[in-house]
């Protein structure tokens, strides 16, 4: 399958919905928890076992994005979206068979392993193409797509719950739900496969308002991982994501603990509302902050994410238990920075390494996400458990965790300060054909 | 798909609208459910 070149006059506004159709689908991964209680009851599993498919899927996401990125760049977005569609949908179909036959290992293999490959390839599939179509607004373009990954869970969570209610939470009902998910997502993602197009060099130059400086930078993925800039951004992403997960992981018990001794304690349904509001902030941050980065620059926006994020954590730690609105606003800002950090990183990579293999470089950088996914919950849960054992309660359960988060954000802030333009010795020369195209465009 | 089989430019506005509705409708449903749940913070 060759990369699908856009015909003359193809609108670039067809590419974001193509990307969204993939990201909104694979974002379902964060709604896996809906399947956990019925699976535990129907197949006699404990909580750790029922989390396995999700955990394996996230590991496979990181691995396939890191190792499949170069292939995605070579084969193009349509190939990548097709692989994502086949793997993600097959994962559900294999899981349906697993639930039907009550063979749990098939669900782990299907959803976790096969579906996880679909997550990784699908996540990076539109990034490079979007940046090439929107060289003037790369932050906004990737923000739209990566917002979709956050939005996927918002759709899947109520949808899956309703389906399980209709079909029943026994093995047959779960199998039917998996089957409908697999088939529906295949149809939904097909739009992306059908619509995605790679811009011609003339389209790219026209969208950029002329050949920009970034067009001249070409750094391969292999070279990029040897630069200090890549590892600085790895630290930036890892610390920013860890800080966000620090809130996300224990949001409901955290707000309950903070105001347990106040005159107005937080009810379970209000805590659920708080979690939903955090999801909204996460999504809004992805599109809002990432678009803002097109105006104020990538380095500046990460200064805000990391610097203001640390101040927000400090405010919660010092005054969070004094007023609910203050606690909620600070948490929302932190979560919006968490989303913004994810969505802005592809544009930051494009600024530093050019568009040549930005998807592959992004894939390798996502290992920072996998690391943060382990680090964040570990810090918050382990420390809260130890504090509880020590007889502490309320907001004092989280004081040490917050101090660590502030420290991590400061480390990220410093790493961001070290980011400089990539040394020309890492640059590849422009291919003769592209150089000629750009020259032709300039003279036209 | 080759460039020859692509629709003429005039029909693309319809395709753009269709594509955005395709992804916008489920996202709208998700956001509606989210808002319903989020209001519990103030009413619950």
UniProtKB/TrEMBL annotation, chain A:
> Which InterPro entries does UniProt cross-reference here?
MFS, MFS_dom, MFS_trans_sf, Proton-linked_MCT
* Subcellular location per the Swiss-Prot or TrEMBL entry: Cell membrane
- Its main localization is membrane
Q: What GO cellular component term, any one, is given? A: plasma membrane
Keyword Iron found: no
Region ranges (Disordered):
425-444
SUPFAM superfamilies, from UniProt? Answer: MFS general substrate transporter
Membrane topology type: Multi-pass membrane protein
Q: Which residues form the Major facilitator superfamily (MFS) profile domain?
A: 1-424
Q: Know the name of this protein?
A: MFS transporter
């Amino acid at each position: 399958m060759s990369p699908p070149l856009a015909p003359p006059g193809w609108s670039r506004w067809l590419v974001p919905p193509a990307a969204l159709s993939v990201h909104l689908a694979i974002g379902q991964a964060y709604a896996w928890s809906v399947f956990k209680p019925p699976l535990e009851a129907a197949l006699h599993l404990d909580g750790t076992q029922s989390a396995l498919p999700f955990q394996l899927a996230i590991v496979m996401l990181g691995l396939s994005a890191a190792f499949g990125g170069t292939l995605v760049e070579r084969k193009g977005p349509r190939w990548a979206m097709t692989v994502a569609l086949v793997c993600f949908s097959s994962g559900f179909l294999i899981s349906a068979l697993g639930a039907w036959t009550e063979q749990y290992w098939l669900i782990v293999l299907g959803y976790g392993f096969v579906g996880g490959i679909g997550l990784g390839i699908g996540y990076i599939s539109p990034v490079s193409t979007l940046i090439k179509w929107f060289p003037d607004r790369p932050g906004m373009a990737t923000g739209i797509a990566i917002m979709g990954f956050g939005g996927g869970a918002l759709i899947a969570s109520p949808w899956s719950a309703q389906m399980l209610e209709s079909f029943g939470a026994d093995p047959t009902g779960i199998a039917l739900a998996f089957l409908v998910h697999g088939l529906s997502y295949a149809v939904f993602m097909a739009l992306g496969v059908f619509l995605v197009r790679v811009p011609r060099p003339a389209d790219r130059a026209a969208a950029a308002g002329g050949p920009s400086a970034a067009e001249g930078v070409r750094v391969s993925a292999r070279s990029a991982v040897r630069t200090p800039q890549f590892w600085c951004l790895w630290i930036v992403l890892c610390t920013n994501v860890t800080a966000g997960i620090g809130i996300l992981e224990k949001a409901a018990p955290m707000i309950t603990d903070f105001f347990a001794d106040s005159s107005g304690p937080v009810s379970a349904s209000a805590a659920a509302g708080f979690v939903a509001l955090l999801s909204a902030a996460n999504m809004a941050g992805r599109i809002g902050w990432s678009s803002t980065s097109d105006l104020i620059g990538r380095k500046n926006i990460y200064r805000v994410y990391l610097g203001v994020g640390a101040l927000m954590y400090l405010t919660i730690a010092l005054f969070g238990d004094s007023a609910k609105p203050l606690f909620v606003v600070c948490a929302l800002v932190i979560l919006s920075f968490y989303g913004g950090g994810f969505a802005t990183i592809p544009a930051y990579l494009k600024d530093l390494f050019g568009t040549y293999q930005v998807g592959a470089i992004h894939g390798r950088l996502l290992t920072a996400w996998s690391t943060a996914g382990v680090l964040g919950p570990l810090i918050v849960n382990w420390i809260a458990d130890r504090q509880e054992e020590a007889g502490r309660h309320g907001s004092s359960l989280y004081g040490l965790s917050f101090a660590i988060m502030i420290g991590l954000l400061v480390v990220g802030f410093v790493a961001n300060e070290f980011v400089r333009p990539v040394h020309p010795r890492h640059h590849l020369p422009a291919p003769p054909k592209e150089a000629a195209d750009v020259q032709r465009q300039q003279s036209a | 798909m080759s460039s020859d089989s692509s629709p003429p430019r005039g029909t693309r506005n319809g395709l753009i609208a269709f594509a955005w509705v395709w992804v916008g409708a489920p996202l709208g449903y998700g956001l509606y459910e989210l808002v319903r749940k989020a209001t519990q913070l103030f009413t619950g």
